Amino acid sequence: MSPEFRVRVGQALGNERVRRNIRRAMDGLVLKRCKAFPDEHELTVLRRRGKLIRGHALANLPDLLRELERNCERNGIRVHWAETAEEGNGIVLDILRRHGAELVIKGKSMVSEEMGLNAYLEAQGIEPVETDLGEFILQLADERPSHIIGPAIHKDRLEVAELFANHFPEIPSGEDIEGLTAAARQIMREYFGRALAGISGVNFAVAETGTLCLVENEGNGRLCTTVPQVHIAVCGIEKVIARLDQLPPLLTLLTRSATGQPITTYVNMISGPRREGELDGPGEVHLVLLDNGRSRVHADRELRSILRCIRCGACMNHCPVYSRLGGHAYGTVYPGPIGSVLEPQLQGIDRLGDLPDASSLCGACGEVCPVRIPLPGLLRRLRAEGIRGRKGSRVIGRGSRRKPMHQLIWALWSRVNACPVLYRGLTGLATRLRWLVPTSLGPWSRTRAAPVIAPRSLHELARAEGLEGE
Length: 470
Ligand code: SF4
Description:
The chain is α/β, with parallel strands linked by helices. Helices cover about 50% and strands about 10% of the residues. Helix 2 (about 15-35) packs across helix 12, helix 16 packs parallel to helix 20 (about 375-385) and helix 21 (about 405-420) crosses helix 22.
């Protein structure tokens, strides 16, 4: 484990308050998901359907993206392609500069987090204001999201009250949820009225109709995409689906898996700028399609399955590692099992090879994933990529975690276990010299007892019982 990762894990485990908040939130979400899918058969059918829809989209990705571009343009949505996060940021900045926007309101978007868009815009003199309540709280706290669905899930209302009191002393908010929400509304309303441009994410982009679908619960997404003159949607290229009739099963899977809701409060279907005679809506809509390493992931038939992800967060909610650490310990935009598979592929296993190891491989993530992504299998594949690197693989940094000392130890281990004479000789010797075995084995025994060698080997016991050779 890298020293940085160990420090972050230590901090997370040492923070009782965060651990309590995360645990409570995860327990609640797990229970809600469970109640949302009372019929096991219905769930199985839905998951199979979700997997097929997303799998079909990925199998036809280039064609569907071209179709999406064509139909969006026909609807009046201007489509931009960004190969990297830097390119994506540049495109957004160009649009904002053209309109002289100095303030931009934002709906929740993990892709914009991936691009580091807020920091980039701030450096260019443009003020981004998060309008999702969780993201707004984090912007005040200068933190990154801890969860992909509930970004501020690690904070309790008292922490939020303290933040509001420090940043907006003129607005009394109290400490109860209603008061805090009302205060946030009051603060944001002014921004909604002033901003020339709004930025949002996209949950699904429908190729056949050129429609952008965006789900949310707070109404801020609708305001960001309709009130300002310009709407910019940022979207990973994998979010495309072929047809409009594929949306309902995906939305059902997404909302029930994420929050246990049958449907979100707002489902926004954006199919172009304001038309003649319409009373509201932006004058311009832009779609920025971001690759940022996804094409490379897509080229690998096994690893590509991670691009089926619909960002529900269920794998995180059910992960015993995530539910103890929270998202910040991972040090990446996407935490939990989804992040441990996606991030090392986007950024390189040489940089983030710790993440596939940050799993107990209990299989819970794969069990709950609504689009049946084989997360445990992908984690194992990436662990192997870090050590060996599969032939023809395009994983960045493959083989970089291979250490000569480890290789030597495993080669010896394999040799000893493959040779009965050596095995018996060495285990016999170990039992006799067991008092020499250290009681501490470095990091391995930091959280568990070091193994104690038995006074008699299994073979000796079997011999004493007259069982050897049976
Ligand atoms: S990997 Fe599966 S469970 Fe995890 S966020 Fe994506 S869709 Fe949800």
